[in-house]
Amino acid sequence: MNKFSVLMSVYNKEKKENIIECFESIMAQTKRPNEWVVVEDGPLTDELYAVLDNYEKKTKGIMKRVRLEKNSGLGVALGIGVEACANELIARMDTDDIAINDRFEKQLEAFDNDDMLDICGTYIDEFENEKDNVVASRIVPLTDLEIKKYQRRRDAFNHMTVMFKKSAVLKAGNYKACPLMEDTYLWVRMMQNGAKCKNIPESLVLARVGEGMYERRGGIMYFDKYRKARRIILKTGYITSWDYIYTVFIQFIVAIIPNRIRGGVYKRILHKKNKVNGQH
């Protein structure tokens, strides 16, 4: 399979510079998509429209823009985007992250080597401000069995790295609204449907982080959203009540500690070179 789509969602609070850096990383891929679906989640700024217009011309008919009249949220936007993709293989990408130039090539190879594979992700390196300033890595489990066990308490995929089969996503009911956990909710339903999973043991995406991200993950309002999202995951039956209580308790502690300490927890404990069954 050499044909694949890239799927991303854009909304009006995103930074032009970040989107350009993201788009350039897609243009520089050793295996470039033959379709590039960009969901405009509600009206955008003139500045963002100008960026999209420019890359629409650069990609010469490859970019497909899907315009939503109002901001509908990431889950709804991605669900519409999946349906708009013409290819069976779809690569997710966040508009503020950067793909390493052989990311798509290596994921396509994984699907070529295993006809049963439904979803394939990778590790990530997290950076602040400049892409050379890597502050942490998020290491995830590699095999189908390890991934499905790990998913009960933490995401076994770095969502901005995944490539998946459209048919497997639609079979699981596609993306649905689940604020904070749109991807998590989809992974769980795909796993319940028997989707075969894999992660490539390389950091093939540079993920943008910073004080703003750590601040957004603090406070009672964020915790309440997290708790409600985990309740939705609990209702799927994939996780136990103890899994729910454990994760909500940990998140409560993380949410109420000062932002400076929270950043350190993410960098040094939650994300930095996590051990996963002996993998570093």
From TrEMBL:
<dbReference type="InterPro" id="IPR050834">
    <property type="entry name" value="Glycosyltransf_2"/>
</dbReference>
<dbReference type="Pfam" id="PF00535">
    <property type="entry name" value="Glycos_transf_2"/>
</dbReference>
<dbReference type="InterPro" id="IPR029044">
    <property type="entry name" value="Nucleotide-diphossugar_trans"/>
</dbReference>
<dbReference type="GO" id="GO:0016757">
    <property type="term" value="F:glycosyltransferase activity"/>
</dbReference>
<dbReference type="InterPro" id="IPR001173">
    <property type="entry name" value="Glyco_trans_2-like"/>
</dbReference>
<comment type="similarity">
    <text>Belongs to the glycosyltransferase 2 family.</text>
</comment>
<keyword id="KW-0328">Glycosyltransferase</keyword>
<protein>
    <submittedName>
        <fullName>Glycosyltransferase</fullName>
    </submittedName>
</protein>
<feature type="domain" description="Glycosyltransferase 2-like">
    <location>
        <begin position="5"/>
        <end position="165"/>
    </location>
</feature>
<keyword id="KW-0808">Transferase</keyword>
